[in-house]
Design a protein that fits this description.
The structure holds 2 protein chains of 2 kinds.
Chain A lengths: L2 H27 L1 H4 L5 H5 L9 E7 L5 E2 L5 E7 L4 E7 L11 E8 L5 E8 L8 H9 L15
Parallel strand pairs in A: 4-6
Antiparallel strand pairs in A: 1-3, 1-5, 2-3, 3-4, 5-6
Chain B lengths: L1 H10 L3 H6 L3 H24 L14 H28 L2 H32 L9 H22 L3 H15 L2 H11 L19 H33 L4 H10 L3
Helix pairs in contact in B: 3-9, 4-5, 4-7, 4-9, 5-6, 5-9, 6-7, 6-8
The chains are: A alpha+beta, B mainly alpha.
């Protein structure tokens, strides 16, 4: 390779490397702003203060969902494995909302440390499963599949 | 063998050779691509099982969303590599390819964002939050494509526009790892990768096989479109040479 080409190539890679370094500093410094939501542990560590609007997310704890008979009020607990957070929401929950599901909610903490949500979004993961496999998991007594009915999507 | 491959590879740097080999490459890629897209889409939409685990039939949009997102990113990477080769080695054809990628990559990233929104509505309960790291970085890639495209239209001087395209493509390529790892580095509404090189896919072959077909077919189709556009651009740039004159006269039937 000729010297002036080599020099140019090194310059380009150095430029990109510096840019990448600068961006990663910004990314690390602004990590909490870039994160779409706080986990219950973040909130337990005091990253969000009462009254401030932010998003919180986690897995809905099994058996924690209680709904009001008359209204659209629902209360449930989310967890990240370490800490838990109680959430309240009035409105229609997304179709994917169920126990064990990952969810993200937007709202704020009230004085009692309960998260009052204005909006609830459901996460889905990278596992895709055809009905036959789910049936066999249900038959073999796999906990997560006991509530499913194969008629749901037919 | 290696020597012959090297000679053949170097020929791609010659506008004359590229124009005169005819449309064989682009046409075969386009045909393979379109047939593949038809096979993968019909298989994926009509015959592959629905996702029972969470999403039901809405999961089928994966057969368009994932290929368009992969192709948009691959095209950007191709454009950046072409940009580096152009700036360092001054090979004319590289910037022709890079500049013809812009519009194609822009359309595929728009398709990725649109299918993502359509998918998000029934599953997440929102078309997407612009502050979500994955959506933000993908939108940034889309706007980088738009920016390069608009810049190319604004700059009349071809040499300046070539350099600007190469530089912007290289600078924007730092965004590619951010798109890829945004779902791992940050909390995001988006799922993590379905396909990885290190682990088997977390779905059954009857679900990922049509997806793989569509990914490969989208690659062929996008490659064919870029080659077709690049042939005209190469001819246009060389229009003052006598071989190109002959070729143009032949094309317009004189």
């Amino acid at each position: 390779m000729k010297a002036h080409r080599k020099q140019k190539l090194i310059l380009i890679f150095a430029g990109v490397a510096v840019l990448a370094l600068a961006l990663s500093f910004i990314g690390i410094a602004m990590r909490n702003q870039i994160n779409l939501y706080y986990s219950p542990t973040d909130i337990a560590n005091g990253l969000a203060s009462p009254g401030q609007t932010f998003r919180a997310g986690g897995l809905v704890v099994d058996g924690s969902v209680s709904r009001d008979e008359e209204t659209l009020f629902a209360q449930f607990t989310v967890t990240d494995g370490g800490n838990e957070l109680v959430m309240q929401y009035i409105g229609i929950l997304p179709d994917l909302f169920r126990e064990g599901q990952g969810i993200v909610a937007q709202g704020s903490l009230n004085g009692d440390g309960v998260f009052v949500a204005d909006e609830v979004f459901a996460k889905h993961d990278e596992n895709y499963l055809p009905p036959e496999v789910a049936e066999s998991l249900k038959a073999s007594g796999h906990d997560a599949y006991q509530n499913y009915d194969s008629g749901d999507y037919e | 063998m290696w020597q012959r491959f090297k000679v053949w590879f170097h020929k791609w740097g010659s506008p004359r050779w590229f124009v005169e080999i005819g449309p064989g490459w682009q046409n075969s890629l386009l045909v393979i691509g379109l047939v593949g897209i038809a096979v993968g889409s019909i298989w994926g939409l009509a015959f592959a099982p629905y996702d029972f685990h969470e999403q039901g039939n809405s999961a089928r949009i994966i057969y368009f969303h994932v290929p368009s997102a992969i192709i948009a990113q691959s095209l950007y990477m191709g454009m950046a590599i072409m940009g580096i080769v152009f700036l360092v080695w001054k090979i004319k054809m590289t910037i022709v390819f890079a500049r013809q990628i812009v519009l194609v990559g822009m359309l595929f990233s728009a398709l990725a964002l649109a299918t993502g929104g359509i998918w998000g509505l029934p599953t997440w309960g929102t078309m997407g939050l612009i502050t979500d790291p994955r959506i933000f970085s993908t939108a940034a890639m889309f706007f980088l494509y738009v920016g390069i495209w608009v810049l190319n239209m604004a700059l009349d001087d071809v040499k300046v526009a070539d350099k600007a395209t190469a530089v912007l493509a290289i600078v924007g390529s730092v965004n590619l790892p951010i798109i890829k790892f945004s779902v791992e580095w940050f909390n995001s509404l988006h799922q993590t990768a379905t396909f990885t090189l290190t682990e088997p896919p977390k779905m059954l072959p009857e679900m990922w096989l049509p997806l793989l077909i569509n990914v490969l077919a989208f690659y062929c189709f996008a490659g064919g479109v870029v080659l077709a556009r690049a042939r005209f651009e190469a001819l246009r740039r060389e229009r003052k040479k006598s071989w190109a004159q002959e070729r143009i006269n032949q094309l317009i039937g004189q």
